[in-house]
Structure formats: C-alpha cells, structure tokens
Amino acid sequence: MPVDVEARVIANTRLSQDYNVIALAAPDIASASAPGQFVMVKLGRGLVPLLRRPFSVFEVLRADGRITGLTLLSKRVGVTTDMLFEAVEGDVVSCLGPLGRPFQLIDPPAEAWMVAGGVGLAPFATLTEALLDRGVAVTLMYGARSDRELFYLDWFEARGVRVMLATEDGTAGDRGRVILPLERELRATAAERDIMIYACGPEPMLEAVANMAAQYNRPSQVSVERVMGCGLGGCYSCVIPVRDDRGGQRYVRSCIGGPVFAGADIVWNP
Amino acid sequence: MTDLSVQIGSLTLANPVIAASGCFGYGIEYADVVDLSLLGGVAVKGLFLAERQGHAPERIVETPAGMLNAIGLQGVGVHRFIKEQLPELRRRRAVVIVNICGSTLDEYVELARILSDTEGVAALELNISCPNIKEGGITFGCSLAGTFDVVSAVRKVTRLPVIPKLTPNVTDVASFARASEDAGADAVSLVNTFLAMAIDVETRRPSLSNIVGGLSGPAIRPIAVRMVYECRNAVKIPVIGMGGIASARDALEFMIAGATAVQVGTANFVDPFIWTKLLEGIRAYLTRHQMPRVSDLTGTLDTSTRD
Ligand SMILES: Cc1cc2nc3c(=O)[nH]c(=O)nc-3n(C[C@H](O)[C@H](O)[C@H](O)COP(=O)(O)O)c2cc1C
User: Fold this and answer.
1) ipTM field
2) Residue bearing the CA closest to ligand 1, atom 2
3) What is the Cα gyration radius of chain B?
C-alpha cells in the first residue's frame, strides 16, 4: 500500500554537472520497497511542474540498524530533475510510494547479470543487496557516454560485484555500447550456467539486451521508463505493448503491470 | 451536523465530490489508497461495448498548469467491466457512474440497456465529448441534434439517471445543456477536455502520437467555471462541474457558479489522497459560513452591483 510522505532532504550530492544523488527522510517507503520499485516525486505544491515524476529507489539508507530513508539517482532532463539537482538539505520533497512490480529475485546457483545504461543504474543498488543476501553472484555491466558519467563503481566493487564497463568515447572499458561486454560474456559462457539478465536504461538499449538475451536463450527482466501520469494505474498513459496469449499485443500500464517486464514479453517495434 | 448530500435526478449522493472519468481507472486501482465509499461517486473510465486498444504512446504531455492527453479510450469493454471490475466496486460500496461511449447511436442504446439490467450501476454518464477519437462520441456532442438524439434514445431505454457529458469545444455550451434537458437528461456534466496541441520544437514533432489531445488541469479552470455558470442559467436540471479542481476552494467555486456536484480528474494524479482533503475543506467552509447543507451553496453567486 503506497504512502505519500513529505520527505525532508537529508543530503544532496552532486556527482557531475547533471547527476545527483538525493537522500530523503522517507523511512516508511524505504522499508516497504522492493528492488525495482519506484516513487512518484513532486517538489513544492506549485502548478509547474504539475505532475509527479517517477524515480527508482536507488539506495535504502540505514543507521544503527534502522532504515532512515532512501536515495534517488537523478539526471537533469527537465524541470523536476533540475529542482532535484538544486534542492538543499531541509527542503521537502513529496514522495509517493513504493509503487510498481519489483524485479523477480533468483537463487543460487543462478547468477545475476545487471545491465545498466546511464541513469538506469538506479534500481541496481537495492537489487545487488537483495541478491547478495541470497548468495547470488552478481555482475554489473555499466555503460555511459564517458568515464565521467560512471558512478558508484566503488560501491559495487566493495560488495564483490564483478564490474564491466563500456563508454561511448572509450575512456573506460569497451568503446561503444554496454551491449558489447554483454555479448562477449554471453558468447563465452557455457550454456549450462544459469544466468538471469536484468536491464535498466534507455529503451533502445533494453531492446538490444532483450533481443540478445533471447538469442542466447537467456531470460531477461527489463525495467522500462515511460511517460507516467499518476503511477497508480489511473490514467493509462504509461502503457507499453506486451505480447498477449493470442499472438497479438495489448497495451499494459507500466506503472502497475511493470515497470519490470520479462524482456521476451515486450513488443519492441509495434 | 453538516449535510453534504446532493441530489442528481433520482440519485442521492452522500457528498458532491465525484472522481472524474478516465482519471481514476476503474476505481479499484485506488481502493488501497482511498475508501471508495467515501466518495460521492466514481465515474469509471469510458467504456465501449468492445475492448479497445487506445492510441499508441506518447499519450500525455505536461503543459503549463495542465496536461494534454490522447489516451484513445483504451478499455476492457462493458462485458468484462461487469464481470471483472464492477463486483469489486460494489464490494467496496462505491457509487458507480458508468461513462459510456459509442461509435453509433445504437451502441449508446445497447450500452444503456446492458447497464440498466446490471445491479450496482448508479447512473450513466454519456461521453459525447471525448476529443481524442474520430468515430462517434464527439460528433454527437458537437451537434445539437446529435446531442438531442442520443440523449432521448438512451432516455427511452433506461430508468437510471442519464448525464450527458458536454464538450467545451463548441461556441455555446449552454445550448447543448438545453438540448440535453429537452431530451430528458437528469443532469449534465461539464467540461470534458479542450482540444489542444503541443510540439517538441527540437524535433518538430507533435508531443502526442495522436498529434492533438485534450487539455485538463488548473489551466482550464476559469473557462470551465464560466461554462458551468452559463449552463446553470440555461437549465433547471443539475449541473456537475469539473475542470482543474485541485482544492476545496476550487470545488466551492464551481458550486457557487452553479454546480450541484463536482468531479476531479487531473488533481487526483498529483495527489491520490486529495479526496478527504476536499471533503474536509468543503465541510470547514460550510461551518465557517454557517450553512447546514452543501446543496444550499449551489448557484449562490452574488452578482449584485457593488457600491
Ligand atoms: C488522462 C485522461 C483521461 C480521460 N478520460 C476520459 C474518459 O474516458 N471519459 C470522459 O468522459 N472524460 C475523460 N477525461 C476527461 C476528464 O474526465 C475531465 O472531464 C477533464 O479532465 C477535466 O477535469 P480535470 O481538469 O479535473 O482533469 C479524461 C481526462 C484525462 C486527463
């Protein structure tokens, strides 16, 4: 059951000119949320912007064994993300959540490969923690424009996550898209190994990952980001075409039917 | 005790606050967030006879103090609604107003027949005003004869309250309220969205896949208030007002202009917990103004000349 919290900003860390991580005192949402779920965020009571915007829960914050809040990983692309970038300690952010269907977790001996593009890194911190708790080996394949836009590498490495990088300008890892290390690993991995591929990032990347996973007979779960009005299934704006059992397709609301879908279920070119 | 009840034809609503069609799913999506029985009514998402896919995304875009939508009435169709959603709405004791859409006059009549034979439907709202689909709907709503015909045809086959929902995309909305009243409507509701458009100037592409869409939200409120005022002066049947209501103050504004009840759409997207706030705000206002009944507020606009 989602709650609406007027969450105080605990800290706001700028990672670059565009990226920031904002920590919010929303322990109720943080405790209830599962990896892959999101919150709908609004700053202030004003009419511009009017609608809330969806953000994946990035980290769950703990102090002295208690959950104290959550963070959001944000990239400036519009009014709300500008406001999130500029927000200072003590500001209040209206935070509705947790919402949506989370990632399905796996158990050993299955291994998890997480494929992230840019700000699509966001759902993978909590997913990593949940998977490591279950003893699952975790790999992160992370792509961005350049090494200046790769964040939290230490966070993942400190937890024993195997990290592979790709940058469009070649400043770290493979030069090109994150699909390059994914394909290389898929080719080099014995068919008997049980792998689940998780992906979050721009839709063309998700399509490429889902198709490549299918090509190598691997299951995938992708977290999509569509323009969302309400986050609760009220407006039917965030739909994505999904295969139905009669060989056709239907539009599914990504807020309540997702944002996580089986990669094989999505019709990428309707 | 403040009496919040209002009368729409033969239907008594516990209070004047109704969830607007298309902005509240089928109602059950919100059952975890709000007690549906606390609302005056729930106008469910527009239903055709058959299931519909709706338009391709992008389906919405935000605009200053509002939003455009071209959902294209994606929906499960009336039969699945009756089987899958209505029982749960009844279990939650929601007052269900079914918003119906047809491509032809016969489809409205068929829908009205089916729903009249169904337990648990409180009223029919005739959507003759959706700006986003080519066939039917709006073609009735934009012609006085079409409005009269569809309302009288539905009137003949149902005892449920019939509430045509009017489009603001006409020159004189009051004449459409009058045509509805003449045809036997129990009330009219207005406004549906304003036909509008937004363009991404970088790509020079329309922001919506449907190119045009309907504008809703606070941006349209003053126009909607004016239209409710005009309709109130033109007809004796109740007027249900909506368009940009985001607070109790806004709801009261519509009632003073002449609305017997109000609907809230876009604001529910921003704050799904708005319902209790609206009811508390209305109650507090009535207490402050020593009005025992909310129905006494309707149409109390004071236009006497000031000195
Ligand atoms: C996303 C969306 C979907 C809508 N769908 C319907 C619909 O199915 N039937 C209908 O009669 N009106 C529909 N409307 C119109 C609303 O019910 C309402 O008339 C309009 O939005 C103005 O009210 P508001 O400013 O409070 O949203 C829709 C509006 C929106 C924003």
Assistant:
1) 0.95
2) B22
3) 18
